[in-house]
Design brief:
single chain, about 450 residues, Sodium/glucose cotransporter, 2 domains, 20 helices, globular
Length: about 450
Amino acid sequence: MEGFFVGAYAVFLVVAAAAFRQQDKAEDYLLAGRRVTLPVFVASLVSTWYGGILGVGEYSYKHGLSNWLVFGVPYYLAALLFAVFIAARARRTGHFTIPDQLLRSYGRVPALIGSAVVFVMTAPAAYVLQMGILLHIVFEWPLAPSLLLGTVFSIIYVFRGGLKGDLITDVVQFALMFAGFGLLVGYAFHRGGIGFLVASVPAQHFTWHGGKSPWYILGWYFIALGALVEPAFYQRCYAARDERVARRGIVISVVFWMVFDFLTTTAGIYARALLPNLADPVAAFPALGQLLLPPWARGLFMLAMLAVVMSTVDSYLFLGGITLGRDIVWRLRGGTDESVVNRYTRAALVATGGLAVCLALWLRSVVDIWHHLGSVGTPALLLPLALSFSERFRPGGGNAALMMAGGGGVALLWLVWPNLPWGHGVYPGGIEPIFPGLVVSAILYGGGRFGRRPG
């Protein structure tokens, strides 16, 4: 039954791809003509920014309610900061991408450095890996063909339809994710209520920390600041019909993320209660669905998990294609003829998909991919991009380039340190790479605060 649902969904994607009219103007292809309405904005952003469904299942299975404090609250706060301070300003600029903002604020070199960082951050290897794992579970194919086939189906409709194709499929995926997990939690609750859960899981599952140290949880509040440099947020804001849609859309999205986190956290705790000896907690959600749901519901739930992941894969593949094709290749070739932007983006979209598959097969760990890319990308971009919207506090172009290179470079060195002969397998001082990267970026900003500004 799972195979039937997934197969029907694959047919839908092919039909959708064939139905989209090929866009010729860059603004239509890359930003859906900047006419995205509030409901579509919300559905697309909610589904796109929730791709790590298997990781959420693993954490909630192991640590219970603290899933909300680690993977929920920090990101709600960061998203609200974006809504209040950045969303309307981003829409007002009329830009296409984050590197456009860097180019206007700092010049060509910082924009190219930022483009490289954005491209690395948008490579959706972690989500391609999860998609391959889900297809492997459904069809029992080897992982490599599952990764490749899932990526191909994630490309076909954005290749032709651009952001409009991404948005339309995101709306369907939004509906599937809530329907599937609502169904799972409903069946789980039928097996036993809160009293059953309290009696069946470790007591720490209902504590705020879930057995983790306060410092560990605090670290996620810094990692979540990556939302302030999140390319998907900027893209949706640039594509929004107006500033009000951009700001309100993010606030409403936070409410939907809170509801979905309630569903996933509850499902993870039920998985721990009903399957206490699960060999691999990453499979908590699929295993719970297999245990509780009848065949038709199991098929819908598996499709819901796939939709959660695929909504992120397609969006980030498209973002990576835009960054590589437009912000790097097109800009290096002069950046004046907009008629070739779409062609460059489509070619780069395919290249980004190939890179994501290779990274997924190489690292084989969703958490490692998240950790490595976020630990380097966030220190490189956070301060230069956030400050670029302020005339008063904006650094000079040379200082911005130094902040990006210095913050990202130190974080990268910190990241690889444990693998060096003298690294002894641990980070210096036991400190996570994101922290020294942010500190170096802040120090470089302070040192160049009174430097010459562009223009």
